[in-house]
Give the backbone structure.
Amino acid sequence: MIEIQVSEQDNVSLLEVSGRVDSMNAHELGQALMGAINGGKMRLVLDLSLVDYMSSAGLREIVSALKKLRHGAGDLRIAQPSHRVLEVLEMAGLDSIFQIYPSRTEALASF
Amino acid sequence: MAESTRLTIPAVMGEIKQACEFVMRAARHAGLDEHAAYECELAIDEVCTNIIEHGYEFDGDTQKIDIICEQVDERFTMVILDDSPAFNPLLGPEPDPDTSLEDRKTGGWGVYFIKRLMDEISYQQEDGRNRLLMVKHLQSLNAARAPRAKVSNHIASFEMGNGVCVVSLIGRLDSDFSVWATEALSPHIHEGQRLLIVDMSGVNFITSNGIKVLVVAYKQMRALGGNMVLAAISNRVSDVFAIVGLDTVFVTYRSLAEAIATTTTAVKPTS
């Protein structure tokens, strides 16, 4: 079960995800990200502080979104990933590809 | 004392959570700490996802995945059995975490995660089923070793059939890893094993104890009428081999693919 809240702050879309992101529901995260991108949003912040579990299915969705955004000179930045999320990001070498911020404020202000 | 529990789930995504919970319970019961139990959970999630997605191609409603958890001494083992077409997940190309975004495929990380999360993995076909064995070592066994680097040592092995087995060693082949490497190699050294290919691509450091492991395994294989070859040796390790005069003892191949390619032709023990 995941919950995704989408809001808008100073021209940046903030997606707050909570719950367990796995192969069962990763597509929901993908849909939320693509929804924002297809709606013309180019600056996205993904707050992952309340995600206590993420399998590679979840990473697949955020990498797809990032590819699409960077292609159009946009970006997806990650705010305060939980310990476990940071671990999987590191394991896949994504910590050097995504801009990751310790707080939501910093991530939002980075654009 | 070996204690074994088993769970059978239909091969659909909605059932994976149940497999995760089952493995978590068994792992905790075996004495793994919370983080190690979580790593087992993530590994089983990735394995089941792969089986359902690639093995059964999302059509596994009437198919089953069996998971057997067992604790033997200091090892917590998970065996995953399925009936999808024969597929060895350990043979695929490994994604590289250093790949740039442009060159990066979005998928393919599941197996990579499993290899990183587990201490040992092996694949074989058994009675027409895919059988993946994953092992997580208990804390006490880990504590007995040197402090672990961020990238943990691990061993992946797979029986390719026809008496050929590939064992990949990843990590610093020092005295601590050597004890464990010997244990992991021994089940693959037996009569009828024609060829043991040791994939050295993940070894960038070797000590005399590490060398001893290889020499002992090599001697055992030769005594049994088989052979052992090394593949993809790093320059650093190759330098050490040259110093101790081992470069003329082992038959070596530049890559694992090259070593495997020779098995399609007759395998002759060379010295």
